[in-house]
Amino acid sequence: MIRQILRRVSRRAEHTVLDVLCVYLTQLSRRKEGRAPFNGEELRLVYHALRSQHLGGTNGEMVGAFEAAFAAAYGVPYAVASTSGTAAVHVALGALDLNPGDEVIVPPITDMGTIIPILYQNAIPVFADVDDTYNMDPRDVERKITARTRAIIVVHLFGNPCDMDAMVEIARRDGIVLIEDSSQAHMTSYKGKYVGTIGDIGCFSFQQSKPMTTGEGGMTITWNKAFHDRMKLFADKGFARKGWGPRSYLFHAPNYRITELVAAVGLAQLHKVQRVVRKRSELGRYMSERLAGLKGVIPAPVTPGAEHTFWQYPIRLTDRDPRDLAAALREAKISSLPGYTGEPIYLCSESLHSKKTYGDSQFPFTSQYSSGTYEYEEGLCPNAERLLDQLLCIPWDESWTRRKIDGVVDIIQRFLSASTPTSISVASPLRPDPRPVTTSRPDSARERIAIIGCGRIGQWHLRAYRRHPEAAIVAVADVDFERARAMAAEVGANAYRSHSEMLAYETLDAASVCSVPSTHHNITIDLLEAGVHVLCEKPLALTVAELREMLEKERAANRLLLPAFKYRFHEEVESARRLLATGSLGRILTFRIMFGGQLDMSGTWYVRPEVSGGGVLMDNGSHSIDLIRHLLGEIGEVTAEATNSQSYGVEDTGKLIVRLEDGAVGTVDLSWAMAVPSRAYLEIFGEHGTILADVEGMSYKFGTWKDWKRLPNQTGWEETFVRQAGSFLGAIVRKHPPVVTSEDGLRTQILLEAAYESIRPRGGAPEPLQV
Ligand SMILES: Cc1ncc(COP(=O)(O)O)c(C=O)c1O
């Protein structure tokens, strides 16, 4: 009896001492500057864990309780704790039993913790670009799906949920597992559900900066019992614990078990996380309100239907260098991260850009398990690259106040008024900046551009340059002077009757040659000689000999001569190129291009061989040959057949038979006399699937699929000219490698000439074909 009383008294005394200690520690943490996530609540539970004299998680109380409480807080049946967010993602992938070479789609803006577990499972990360929310663009996710895609890992970046309706639809349709990396988005809702519970599996990091933290730690949650059972084993070496006796490790797996101490802290944190997240949301909304009116600043975007919980605050500067703002903030002791991770994650990691994975093996990228060529280099996700250049993240927490935010906004305002806008970078050749183009560049700093030939194609070139702030159209020329005058008036340029008259009066940087083909040779040579870069419409020249002279001049003048093979800039062509680059279509068996229409060409220059150089083969043959080389590789041989049903001086219908260097043979059908019934102008048939491309998008289907998948274009076909002009300007101004070169032009011209040669009557006139 006395012993019982003594035990009770001593337990009460122990509690009292602990409570006093906790109160003291709480006071201590209140006095501390900045974030103080831990206090007496954690201490009390850590003390209980220690008192149990058992810190191993397997048979302890805390780990099981933490997993159960976490699952309950998110309203799902299962949760598996692990040692980090990275481990949590690895545990999720462990549930899938991936094969080497399987593909997992991931975003380019994230922590390496999202990516490295994929490589540890010998699978391949495939990057889908982001949209202006910084999160993965569902349309690009669709584009990246192949027969090898096993999972999509979405990341709710900075606390802003992805477009989960679209992601779920994509994943369900193709039977792909959807994993949500919610490391930065704790207790964050999308359309009434917590992110992490919407897909198949959700992952969380409890690293120190996260809203809920155990210093280091992670959790993986799911609705799916089969996934859970495998995840639980995966975090514990695959160990099927069943008491004494011979052990059984069911599969290849690491040990990610946490201790009772970590779980104790996690349990205490779980009580606080709602409060923490609410505070960060409120601060984030306030920051957005304050930034809303500032010119050149884009506050944090919020996905429709979502709540943003602001792990960090992303500020986008449209016309200032974020590094300069970071320096201004640093002076006030505010830390910030220009470009978040600085570069897209694929450029931050040797495992990706150098494929340095296991020793020198480059496994799995260059193994027999890999079904394609995977390159992790600049240009892979142009939107992400562009956005990171403009991004500044403010890493903050729930200890911030409105006053501190006001202070940051003041610094931003002062920075904006003290600095001058930098130039807006030219859009990536294949993904133009969707922002309306405005320019603050003075005319003298812009490229002085001329258009030669003011017909329909010249108009398209003109409109395209007008979308680029780096270009100023200063002169136009046409033999039809009225036409030149009308175009010049549109843009405030000078009009000329000829390119030579223009060169006598103007100092130019670059020109588009859009006149009839027979003039290309002379005009281009004169322009290059005058030090002007040239973008020349197809066909570049009437003969290979002429074109070789033009290329020689290009080299001697150290200027660029780029062919206007605009199909390379069509969105559906880019979609096809990306899909082909994955190698998932297998060996290419055959292909077909069809360009046709019932067109009345009589009276036009197209049917005058001395002006056009040939008929329908010359007209669209160069586009077709370049398209095949661009998508499928080098061509070994081209032969032709041709007819002339409309009695022009040139062929009005023709066929090219094209043999690739790797042996595959395909055809090109071209006609001014017959319409093509098919919507697709391009068909590619591979061992494992088929691609169909038309001007509104690309459709594709793998052999194992029931239905076709459609990737509609996001922009109209006029944008192809804008992208083409962007590539030209990028090559001139920033020395970016152009998407197409004069060597491509030469190779195409040689192949086209060989095709004509194959139908020229033996001993016939060497000049353009008369059918
Ligand atoms: C989105 C995302 N995924 C994964 C991780 C990896 O988490 P940990 O550092 O806990 O391994 C992080 C960490 O910052 C993250 O932000």
Indicate the radius of gyration in whole angstroms. Answer: 32 Å
What is the typical, i.e. mean, pLDDT? 91
Number-wise, the strands total 27
Subunit arrangement of the protein: single chain
The shape, in one word, is elongated
Q: Which segments are poorly predicted (pLDDT under 50) over 5 or more consecutive residues?
A: 423-442, 763-771
Secondary structure: helix percent: 25-40%
Q: How many helical stretches?
A: 24
Distance between the terminal alpha carbons, to the nearest Å?
119 Å
User: How many strands, which pairing sense, and closed or not: the largest β-sheet?
Assistant: 8 strands, mixed
Bound molecules: pyridoxal-5'-phosphate
Give an account of the 3D structure:
The protein has about 775 residues and is an alpha/beta fold. Helices cover about 40% and strands about 20% of the residues. It contains 24 helices and 27 strands. The strands form five sheets. Strands 21-22-23-20-24-25-26-27 form an eight-stranded mixed β-sheet. It has a seven-stranded mixed β-sheet with strand order 1-9-8-5-4-2-3, with helices on both faces. Helix 5 (about 110-120) links the parallel strand 2 and strand 3. The termini are far apart. About 50% of the residues are buried. Residues about 425-440 and about 765-770 have low confidence and may be disordered. The structure holds pyridoxal-5'-phosphate.
